[in-house]
Amino acid sequence: MKMSEENIEDVTFENNDDNLDKEQDDEDDATKQKPKPERKSRKSKTERKIKELQDQYKELNDKYLRLYSEFDNYRKRTNKERLELLKSASHEVIVDLLPVLDDFDRAITAIDEHGIDEETKKGLLLIYNKLYNILSQKGLESMNSIGKDFDTDYHEAITNIPAPSKDMVGKVVDVIEKGYLLNGKIIRFAKVVIGS
User: Fold this and answer.
1) Domains defined along the chain, listed by start
2) Are strands 185-188 and 155-161 parallel, antiparallel or unpaired?
3) Is the CB of residue 105 less than 8 Å from the CB of residue 129?
């Protein structure tokens, strides 16, 4: 088949138009695939990753701080409980020794009343003072109740007697058994006689 020159030219133009369309499409594709949007997507991915890591860091840091504070509270609580246990352990021993102190008080009073020699009294006072000093170092203190207003928080009334003077009405006239405090807490109420 022979083509005429006109047909050849038409085919050439057609081919040229096809080539031009292809080139245009290639240019459009090239503009669509610019590296800039790729960088933006990479940036957004890294920003998201950074944000995730920062959130994870905040969460872990919060957990650490909570755990640390819980441990610190536990440590303080156990130290406090241990101190209270030590105090309560000595509490029982001290309460058991209070009758011995009472016996010393009675012995000293009996020595004064019966006029036993001074050397015996000095020896008895020496032993009493040693015992009382040891117990006072552990937190024991005796109540001085004579002449003070009757207070049910500290005193246990045994009986009422006529007051020796008007200013002693409602006050402690005599102490039958001393009261004691251990570290500021009452371990034994004072048994007292009140003036009426």
Assistant:
1) 142-196 (2.30.22.10)
2) unpaired
3) no
Rounded Cα distance between 91 and 110, Å, is 29
Give tens-digit pLDDT for 25-64: 555 555 555 545 556 677 788 888 999 999 999 999 999 9
Q: What is the DSSP letter of 3?
A: P
Strands in 32-188 per DSSP E: 140-142, 155-161, 172-177, 180-182, 185-188
Which tokens go with 32? 């669509």
The answer, as to whether pTM is greater than 0.70, is no
Rounded Cα distance, 120 and 125, in Å = 9
Residue indicated by tokens 């090239």: 30
Rounded to 5°, the CA angle 113-117-123 comes to 100
Rg (CA), the chain: 50
With CA atoms as reference, report the closest residue to 194 among 166, 171, 176, 178.
Answer: 171
Residue with token string 């003070």 = 148
DSSP state of 168: G
- Looking at the chain, which runs of residues are DSSP E strands? 140-142, 155-161, 172-177, 180-182, 185-188, 190-195
- Residue position matching structure tokens 């440590």: 75
pLDDT digits (tens, 9 = 90+) for 147-189: 888 888 888 888 888 888 888 888 888 888 999 998 888 899 9
